[in-house]
Amino acid sequence: MKNKKIFILIPSGIALRNFAFTKFHDLAKAQNLDITYWNSTPFSISEMGYKEIRLDNIKPHWLTDILKNARKTIELNLNIKNTGDPIYNAYKFPASNKSIKAVVKNVITKVIIFLFSSSKGLEKIKQIINKKERSTDYYNSCINTLEIEKPDFLFCTNQRIVDAIAPLLAARDIDIPTATFIFSWDNLPKATLVVDTDYYFVWSDFMKKEMHQYYPQIKANQIIVTGTPQFEPHYDNETIKTKEAFYKDYNLDSKKEYVCFSGDDVTTSPDDPKYLEDFARAIASLNTKGYNLGIVFRKCPVDFSGRYDNIVSKYNGLIVEVAPKWQNVNNTWNTMLPSKEDNILLSNTIAHSLFVVNLGSSMVFDYAAFNKTCGYFNYNQEVQLKANWNIHQCYKYVHFRSMPNGAVIYFDKAEEIEAKIVGIISKESDTAEKAKLWFDTICKSPQKESSQRILKAITAILSKENI
Fold this sequence. Notes:
Helix content: 25-40%
Strand content: 5-15%
Number of helices: 17
Number of domains: 3
Protein backbone atom coordinates (compact mmCIF):
# COMPACT_ATOMS: atom_id res chain seq x y z
CA MET A 1 0.00 0.00 0.00
CA LYS A 2 1.28 3.44 -0.94
CA ASN A 3 2.39 5.61 1.98
CA LYS A 4 0.23 8.64 2.66
CA LYS A 5 1.91 11.84 1.49
CA ILE A 6 1.82 14.68 4.01
CA PHE A 7 2.75 18.25 3.11
CA ILE A 8 4.07 20.21 6.10
CA LEU A 9 3.67 23.92 5.37
CA ILE A 10 6.51 25.92 6.98
CA PRO A 11 5.64 29.64 6.73
CA SER A 12 7.91 30.86 9.55
CA GLY A 13 11.12 30.10 11.40
CA ILE A 14 9.26 29.15 14.58
CA ALA A 15 7.69 26.24 12.70
CA LEU A 16 11.14 24.82 11.95
CA ARG A 17 11.82 24.48 15.67
CA ASN A 18 8.67 22.42 16.20
CA PHE A 19 8.49 20.26 13.10
CA ALA A 20 11.94 20.03 11.51
CA PHE A 21 14.31 20.19 14.48
CA THR A 22 12.48 17.70 16.72
CA LYS A 23 11.92 13.99 16.15
CA PHE A 24 8.66 14.70 14.32
CA HIS A 25 10.02 13.65 10.92
CA ASP A 26 11.59 10.42 12.17
CA LEU A 27 8.40 9.48 14.01
CA ALA A 28 6.35 10.11 10.87
CA LYS A 29 8.70 7.98 8.80
CA ALA A 30 8.40 5.15 11.35
CA GLN A 31 4.63 5.30 10.82
CA ASN A 32 5.06 5.00 7.04
CA LEU A 33 4.04 8.60 6.39
CA ASP A 34 5.74 10.34 3.48
CA ILE A 35 6.68 13.82 4.72
CA THR A 36 7.44 16.72 2.38
CA TYR A 37 8.18 20.18 3.77
CA TRP A 38 6.58 23.01 1.79
CA ASN A 39 8.98 25.66 2.96
CA SER A 40 8.95 29.44 2.61
CA THR A 41 11.79 30.19 5.05
CA PRO A 42 15.39 30.88 3.97
CA PHE A 43 16.52 27.71 5.74
CA SER A 44 17.24 24.71 3.48
CA ILE A 45 15.44 21.72 4.98
CA SER A 46 16.72 19.50 2.19
CA GLU A 47 20.23 19.85 3.65
CA MET A 48 18.96 17.83 6.59
CA GLY A 49 18.17 15.00 4.20
CA TYR A 50 14.42 15.68 4.21
CA LYS A 51 12.14 16.14 1.21
CA GLU A 52 11.52 19.79 0.54
CA ILE A 53 9.62 21.89 -1.99
CA ARG A 54 10.30 25.61 -1.96
CA LEU A 55 7.31 27.91 -1.65
CA ASP A 56 8.63 30.67 -3.88
CA ASN A 57 7.19 33.78 -5.53
CA ILE A 58 5.11 34.44 -2.44
CA LYS A 59 2.93 37.47 -3.08
CA PRO A 60 -0.46 37.65 -1.37
CA HIS A 61 -2.98 40.16 -2.67
CA TRP A 62 -2.10 43.69 -1.55
CA LEU A 63 -5.45 44.05 0.23
CA THR A 64 -5.15 40.84 2.26
CA ASP A 65 -2.83 42.20 4.94
CA ILE A 66 -5.09 45.22 5.41
CA LEU A 67 -8.14 42.98 5.72
CA LYS A 68 -6.26 40.74 8.16
CA ASN A 69 -5.46 43.71 10.41
CA ALA A 70 -9.06 44.91 10.25
CA ARG A 71 -10.31 41.43 11.04
CA LYS A 72 -8.11 41.25 14.13
CA THR A 73 -9.35 44.59 15.48
CA ILE A 74 -12.99 43.65 14.86
CA GLU A 75 -12.50 40.31 16.65
CA LEU A 76 -10.93 42.05 19.63
CA ASN A 77 -13.72 44.64 19.72
CA LEU A 78 -16.32 41.86 19.68
CA ASN A 79 -14.46 40.07 22.50
CA ILE A 80 -14.71 43.25 24.58
CA LYS A 81 -18.42 43.56 23.76
CA ASN A 82 -19.14 39.89 24.53
CA THR A 83 -17.15 39.69 27.77
CA GLY A 84 -17.12 43.26 29.07
CA ASP A 85 -13.37 42.82 29.54
CA PRO A 86 -11.19 45.72 28.29
CA ILE A 87 -8.01 43.60 28.39
CA TYR A 88 -8.46 42.80 24.71
CA ASN A 89 -7.57 46.40 23.91
CA ALA A 90 -4.04 45.55 25.09
CA TYR A 91 -3.65 43.21 22.10
CA LYS A 92 -4.02 46.09 19.65
CA PHE A 93 -0.80 47.64 18.44
CA PRO A 94 -0.58 51.29 17.35
CA ALA A 95 -0.44 51.66 13.60
CA SER A 96 2.65 53.10 11.96
CA ASN A 97 2.37 56.38 10.09
CA LYS A 98 5.99 56.59 8.96
CA SER A 99 5.15 56.84 5.25
CA ILE A 100 2.36 57.94 2.94
CA LYS A 101 1.75 54.29 2.06
CA ALA A 102 1.34 53.40 5.74
CA VAL A 103 -1.08 56.30 6.27
CA VAL A 104 -3.20 55.18 3.30
CA LYS A 105 -3.26 51.59 4.59
CA ASN A 106 -4.35 52.81 8.01
CA VAL A 107 -7.17 54.88 6.56
CA ILE A 108 -8.42 51.92 4.52
CA THR A 109 -8.19 49.69 7.59
CA LYS A 110 -10.29 52.09 9.67
CA VAL A 111 -12.93 52.28 6.95
CA ILE A 112 -13.14 48.48 6.76
CA ILE A 113 -13.44 48.24 10.56
CA PHE A 114 -16.27 50.79 10.51
CA LEU A 115 -18.16 49.02 7.70
CA PHE A 116 -17.73 45.41 8.91
CA SER A 117 -17.75 45.69 12.70
CA SER A 118 -19.96 42.67 13.49
CA SER A 119 -19.89 38.87 13.40
CA LYS A 120 -21.51 38.93 9.98
CA GLY A 121 -18.99 41.55 8.92
CA LEU A 122 -16.15 39.23 9.96
CA GLU A 123 -17.52 36.49 7.74
CA LYS A 124 -17.76 38.95 4.87
CA ILE A 125 -14.11 39.95 5.38
CA LYS A 126 -13.07 36.28 5.25
CA GLN A 127 -14.96 35.90 1.97
CA ILE A 128 -13.24 38.95 0.51
CA ILE A 129 -9.82 37.68 1.62
CA ASN A 130 -10.48 34.31 0.01
CA LYS A 131 -11.70 35.91 -3.21
CA LYS A 132 -8.68 38.22 -3.43
CA GLU A 133 -6.20 35.41 -2.68
CA ARG A 134 -7.78 33.16 -5.33
CA SER A 135 -7.15 35.91 -7.88
CA THR A 136 -3.37 35.91 -7.38
CA ASP A 137 -0.58 34.24 -9.32
CA TYR A 138 0.61 32.96 -5.94
CA TYR A 139 -2.60 30.97 -5.47
CA ASN A 140 -2.36 29.55 -8.99
CA SER A 141 1.24 28.52 -8.31
CA CYS A 142 0.08 26.70 -5.17
CA ILE A 143 -2.66 24.92 -7.13
CA ASN A 144 -0.09 23.85 -9.69
CA THR A 145 2.27 22.45 -7.05
CA LEU A 146 -0.50 20.53 -5.30
CA GLU A 147 -1.86 19.06 -8.54
CA ILE A 148 1.62 17.85 -9.47
CA GLU A 149 2.57 16.51 -6.04
CA LYS A 150 -0.88 15.21 -5.03
CA PRO A 151 -0.43 15.19 -1.24
CA ASP A 152 -3.05 13.44 0.86
CA PHE A 153 -2.96 16.08 3.59
CA LEU A 154 -1.72 19.65 4.12
CA PHE A 155 -0.65 20.59 7.65
CA CYS A 156 0.04 24.28 8.33
CA THR A 157 2.41 24.78 11.25
CA ASN A 158 1.54 28.40 12.07
CA GLN A 159 -1.97 29.85 12.09
CA ARG A 160 -1.09 33.54 12.01
CA ILE A 161 0.86 34.00 8.75
CA VAL A 162 -0.86 35.67 5.78
CA ASP A 163 1.40 33.78 3.36
CA ALA A 164 -0.29 30.53 4.43
CA ILE A 165 -3.77 31.56 3.23
CA ALA A 166 -3.28 30.86 -0.48
CA PRO A 167 -1.70 27.38 -0.07
CA LEU A 168 -4.50 26.31 2.28
CA LEU A 169 -7.19 27.70 0.01
CA ALA A 170 -5.64 25.90 -2.93
CA ALA A 171 -5.63 22.60 -1.04
CA ARG A 172 -9.23 22.91 0.08
CA ASP A 173 -10.33 23.89 -3.43
CA ILE A 174 -9.02 20.59 -4.79
CA ASP A 175 -10.33 18.52 -1.88
CA ILE A 176 -7.10 17.99 0.04
CA PRO A 177 -7.89 17.93 3.79
CA THR A 178 -6.13 20.60 5.83
CA ALA A 179 -5.24 21.38 9.42
CA THR A 180 -3.41 24.15 11.20
CA PHE A 181 -1.43 24.15 14.42
CA ILE A 182 -1.94 26.90 17.01
CA PHE A 183 1.72 27.49 17.66
CA SER A 184 1.72 29.46 20.94
CA TRP A 185 -0.11 29.26 24.26
CA ASP A 186 -1.27 32.90 24.17
CA ASN A 187 -2.38 33.18 20.55
CA LEU A 188 -6.14 32.59 20.67
CA PRO A 189 -7.09 35.57 22.90
CA LYS A 190 -4.98 37.79 20.63
CA ALA A 191 -7.18 37.12 17.57
CA THR A 192 -4.32 35.69 15.51
CA LEU A 193 -6.25 32.96 13.69
CA VAL A 194 -5.60 34.11 10.13
CA VAL A 195 -6.25 30.84 8.26
CA ASP A 196 -9.32 28.64 7.89
CA THR A 197 -8.79 24.87 7.78
CA ASP A 198 -10.70 21.64 8.19
CA TYR A 199 -9.06 20.88 11.54
CA TYR A 200 -7.29 22.81 14.30
CA PHE A 201 -4.59 21.22 16.46
CA VAL A 202 -4.27 22.78 19.92
CA TRP A 203 -2.04 22.25 22.94
CA SER A 204 -4.58 21.30 25.59
CA ASP A 205 -8.19 20.92 26.68
CA PHE A 206 -7.82 24.43 28.08
CA MET A 207 -6.94 25.76 24.62
CA LYS A 208 -9.79 23.78 23.09
CA LYS A 209 -12.22 25.61 25.39
CA GLU A 210 -10.64 28.89 24.27
CA MET A 211 -11.19 27.92 20.65
CA HIS A 212 -14.87 27.26 21.39
CA GLN A 213 -15.12 30.62 23.12
CA TYR A 214 -13.51 32.74 20.43
CA TYR A 215 -14.59 30.77 17.35
CA PRO A 216 -17.96 29.12 18.15
CA GLN A 217 -18.50 28.43 14.45
CA ILE A 218 -15.75 25.81 14.57
CA LYS A 219 -17.23 22.44 15.51
CA ALA A 220 -15.93 20.35 18.41
CA ASN A 221 -14.78 17.50 16.16
CA GLN A 222 -12.60 19.94 14.20
CA ILE A 223 -10.52 20.82 17.29
CA ILE A 224 -7.94 18.18 18.23
CA VAL A 225 -5.84 18.27 21.40
CA THR A 226 -2.26 17.22 20.67
CA GLY A 227 0.20 19.23 22.75
CA THR A 228 3.18 20.91 21.09
CA PRO A 229 6.51 19.43 19.95
CA GLN A 230 8.49 22.41 21.23
CA PHE A 231 9.08 20.86 24.66
CA GLU A 232 9.96 17.37 23.41
CA PRO A 233 13.74 17.95 23.21
CA HIS A 234 13.78 18.42 27.00
CA TYR A 235 12.94 14.73 27.40
CA ASP A 236 15.75 13.47 25.16
CA ASN A 237 18.39 12.39 27.66
CA GLU A 238 20.85 11.62 24.87
CA THR A 239 21.30 15.33 24.16
CA ILE A 240 21.94 16.37 27.77
CA LYS A 241 25.65 16.88 28.37
CA THR A 242 27.39 16.36 31.66
CA LYS A 243 27.63 19.41 33.88
CA GLU A 244 31.41 19.42 33.39
CA ALA A 245 31.08 19.41 29.60
CA PHE A 246 28.48 22.19 29.57
CA TYR A 247 30.54 24.35 31.92
CA LYS A 248 33.62 23.83 29.76
CA ASP A 249 31.79 24.72 26.53
CA TYR A 250 30.63 28.08 27.91
CA ASN A 251 33.57 28.93 30.20
CA LEU A 252 31.50 28.67 33.35
CA ASP A 253 33.19 28.55 36.74
CA SER A 254 33.13 24.96 37.98
CA LYS A 255 32.89 26.20 41.57
CA LYS A 256 29.67 28.12 40.95
CA GLU A 257 26.01 27.22 40.62
CA TYR A 258 24.22 29.25 37.97
CA VAL A 259 20.79 30.82 37.69
CA CYS A 260 19.31 31.59 34.26
CA PHE A 261 18.07 35.06 33.34
CA SER A 262 16.04 34.65 30.16
CA GLY A 263 15.44 37.87 28.27
CA ASP A 264 12.23 39.09 26.71
CA ASP A 265 11.76 40.94 23.45
CA VAL A 266 11.94 44.72 23.53
CA THR A 267 8.17 45.16 23.11
CA THR A 268 7.30 42.88 26.02
CA SER A 269 10.00 44.22 28.33
CA PRO A 270 11.64 47.48 27.24
CA ASP A 271 13.39 47.77 30.63
CA ASP A 272 14.73 44.22 30.60
CA PRO A 273 18.42 45.25 30.96
CA LYS A 274 17.54 47.04 34.19
CA TYR A 275 15.92 43.88 35.58
CA LEU A 276 19.08 41.98 34.66
CA GLU A 277 21.13 44.55 36.60
CA ASP A 278 18.82 44.31 39.62
CA PHE A 279 19.20 40.56 39.57
CA ALA A 280 22.98 40.76 39.19
CA ARG A 281 23.19 43.08 42.21
CA ALA A 282 21.25 40.57 44.31
CA ILE A 283 23.46 37.68 43.20
CA ALA A 284 26.61 39.72 43.88
CA SER A 285 25.35 40.55 47.36
CA LEU A 286 24.63 36.90 48.13
CA ASN A 287 28.14 35.99 47.03
CA THR A 288 29.52 38.29 49.73
CA LYS A 289 27.53 36.23 52.25
CA GLY A 290 28.99 32.85 51.48
CA TYR A 291 27.08 31.86 48.35
CA ASN A 292 28.87 31.13 45.09
CA LEU A 293 26.40 31.90 42.33
CA GLY A 294 26.53 33.13 38.76
CA ILE A 295 24.07 34.11 36.04
CA VAL A 296 23.74 32.44 32.66
CA PHE A 297 22.09 34.99 30.42
CA ARG A 298 19.97 33.79 27.51
CA LYS A 299 18.57 36.60 25.37
CA CYS A 300 15.18 36.32 23.72
CA PRO A 301 16.01 34.40 20.50
CA VAL A 302 14.56 37.15 18.28
CA ASP A 303 16.37 39.98 20.08
CA PHE A 304 19.50 40.80 18.11
CA SER A 305 20.00 44.19 19.76
CA GLY A 306 22.95 45.15 21.91
CA ARG A 307 20.80 46.61 24.69
CA TYR A 308 22.22 44.31 27.39
CA ASP A 309 25.89 44.74 26.47
CA ASN A 310 26.72 47.37 29.09
CA ILE A 311 25.23 45.31 31.93
CA VAL A 312 26.94 42.09 30.82
CA SER A 313 30.25 43.98 30.61
CA LYS A 314 29.72 45.69 33.97
CA TYR A 315 29.18 42.32 35.68
CA ASN A 316 31.80 40.45 33.71
CA GLY A 317 32.51 37.14 35.39
CA LEU A 318 29.20 37.15 37.24
CA ILE A 319 27.04 37.18 34.09
CA VAL A 320 27.96 34.74 31.33
CA GLU A 321 25.99 35.04 28.12
CA VAL A 322 24.89 31.74 26.58
CA ALA A 323 23.42 33.14 23.38
CA PRO A 324 20.59 31.36 21.54
CA LYS A 325 21.69 29.77 18.27
CA TRP A 326 19.29 31.68 16.02
CA GLN A 327 19.89 33.67 12.83
CA ASN A 328 18.43 37.00 11.78
CA VAL A 329 18.15 36.55 8.01
CA ASN A 330 16.00 39.43 6.74
CA ASN A 331 15.23 41.31 9.96
CA THR A 332 11.59 40.25 9.86
CA TRP A 333 9.69 38.15 12.38
CA ASN A 334 9.09 35.32 9.90
CA THR A 335 12.77 35.02 9.00
CA MET A 336 14.21 34.82 12.50
CA LEU A 337 15.53 31.28 12.19
CA PRO A 338 16.13 28.83 15.05
CA SER A 339 18.40 25.82 14.77
CA LYS A 340 18.37 22.24 15.92
CA GLU A 341 21.47 23.06 17.95
CA ASP A 342 19.52 25.68 19.88
CA ASN A 343 16.94 23.11 20.98
CA ILE A 344 19.82 21.15 22.51
CA LEU A 345 21.42 24.28 23.98
CA LEU A 346 18.18 25.33 25.66
CA SER A 347 17.69 21.90 27.22
CA ASN A 348 21.25 21.89 28.54
CA THR A 349 20.96 25.44 29.87
CA ILE A 350 17.92 24.38 31.88
CA ALA A 351 19.49 21.10 33.04
CA HIS A 352 22.55 22.90 34.41
CA SER A 353 20.97 25.96 36.03
CA LEU A 354 19.15 26.12 39.35
CA PHE A 355 16.08 28.07 38.23
CA VAL A 356 15.05 30.80 35.78
CA VAL A 357 13.91 34.42 36.14
CA ASN A 358 12.21 36.62 33.57
CA LEU A 359 9.19 38.77 32.86
CA GLY A 360 6.13 36.62 32.13
CA SER A 361 7.86 34.23 29.74
CA SER A 362 6.75 30.73 28.74
CA MET A 363 10.19 29.62 29.93
CA VAL A 364 8.28 28.73 33.09
CA PHE A 365 7.11 25.64 31.19
CA ASP A 366 10.55 24.75 29.89
CA TYR A 367 11.81 24.73 33.47
CA ALA A 368 8.70 22.89 34.69
CA ALA A 369 9.70 20.06 32.32
CA PHE A 370 12.80 19.72 34.52
CA ASN A 371 10.82 20.23 37.77
CA LYS A 372 12.51 23.58 38.34
CA THR A 373 11.23 26.93 39.56
CA CYS A 374 10.59 30.19 37.69
CA GLY A 375 10.65 33.72 39.11
CA TYR A 376 8.77 36.63 37.51
CA PHE A 377 9.73 40.29 37.95
CA ASN A 378 6.66 42.20 39.12
CA TYR A 379 7.64 45.84 39.66
CA ASN A 380 8.19 48.86 37.47
CA GLN A 381 11.54 50.59 37.16
CA GLU A 382 11.66 54.11 38.62
CA VAL A 383 13.04 55.49 35.36
CA GLN A 384 11.45 53.78 32.36
CA LEU A 385 12.63 53.71 28.77
CA LYS A 386 9.08 53.59 27.38
CA ALA A 387 6.45 56.02 28.57
CA ASN A 388 3.20 54.53 29.89
CA TRP A 389 4.60 50.99 29.90
CA ASN A 390 3.43 49.04 32.96
CA ILE A 391 4.75 45.63 33.96
CA HIS A 392 1.52 44.84 35.82
CA GLN A 393 -0.40 45.05 32.56
CA CYS A 394 1.57 42.05 31.28
CA TYR A 395 0.21 39.77 34.00
CA LYS A 396 -3.37 40.81 33.25
CA TYR A 397 -3.25 39.16 29.83
CA VAL A 398 -5.80 36.41 29.37
CA HIS A 399 -3.29 33.56 29.15
CA PHE A 400 -2.09 34.19 32.71
CA ARG A 401 -5.56 33.42 34.06
CA SER A 402 -4.77 29.73 33.69
CA MET A 403 -2.01 30.00 36.31
CA PRO A 404 -2.60 28.32 39.69
CA ASN A 405 -1.63 30.31 42.77
CA GLY A 406 2.00 29.80 43.70
CA ALA A 407 3.16 28.51 40.31
CA VAL A 408 5.89 31.17 40.11
CA ILE A 409 7.85 33.30 42.57
CA TYR A 410 7.09 37.00 42.14
CA PHE A 411 9.80 39.58 42.72
CA ASP A 412 7.59 42.48 43.78
CA LYS A 413 10.49 44.90 44.32
CA ALA A 414 14.21 44.87 43.71
CA GLU A 415 15.00 44.88 47.42
CA GLU A 416 13.38 41.46 47.99
CA ILE A 417 15.08 39.59 45.14
CA GLU A 418 17.95 38.48 47.34
CA ALA A 419 15.75 36.92 50.03
CA LYS A 420 13.55 35.18 47.49
CA ILE A 421 16.58 33.67 45.74
CA VAL A 422 17.56 32.15 49.09
CA GLY A 423 14.02 30.82 49.45
CA ILE A 424 14.10 29.20 46.02
CA ILE A 425 17.49 27.60 46.62
CA SER A 426 16.38 26.24 49.99
CA LYS A 427 13.10 24.99 48.44
CA GLU A 428 10.88 26.74 50.94
CA SER A 429 7.79 26.37 48.71
CA ASP A 430 6.19 23.89 46.32
CA THR A 431 6.42 26.32 43.42
CA ALA A 432 8.01 23.80 41.04
CA GLU A 433 5.18 21.30 41.64
CA LYS A 434 2.53 23.96 41.01
CA ALA A 435 4.37 25.09 37.87
CA LYS A 436 4.17 21.48 36.64
CA LEU A 437 0.40 21.53 37.25
CA TRP A 438 0.21 24.72 35.19
CA PHE A 439 2.32 23.09 32.48
CA ASP A 440 -0.08 20.12 32.39
CA THR A 441 -3.00 22.54 32.03
CA ILE A 442 -1.40 24.43 29.17
CA CYS A 443 0.14 21.47 27.30
CA LYS A 444 -1.31 17.97 27.29
CA SER A 445 0.65 15.47 29.36
CA PRO A 446 2.84 13.57 28.75
CA GLN A 447 4.38 16.46 26.84
CA LYS A 448 7.02 14.26 25.23
CA GLU A 449 4.32 12.49 23.16
CA SER A 450 2.96 15.55 21.34
CA SER A 451 4.40 14.66 17.93
CA GLN A 452 2.97 11.16 18.25
CA ARG A 453 -0.48 12.61 18.96
CA ILE A 454 -0.25 14.97 15.98
CA LEU A 455 0.70 12.11 13.65
CA LYS A 456 -1.99 9.86 15.13
CA ALA A 457 -4.59 12.57 14.48
CA ILE A 458 -3.46 13.03 10.88
CA THR A 459 -3.61 9.27 10.30
CA ALA A 460 -7.09 9.12 11.82
CA ILE A 461 -8.31 11.97 9.61
CA LEU A 462 -6.99 10.26 6.50
CA SER A 463 -8.55 6.93 7.46
CA LYS A 464 -11.79 8.70 8.41
CA GLU A 465 -11.67 7.24 11.91
CA ASN A 466 -13.11 8.93 14.96
CA ILE A 467 -10.43 11.19 16.43
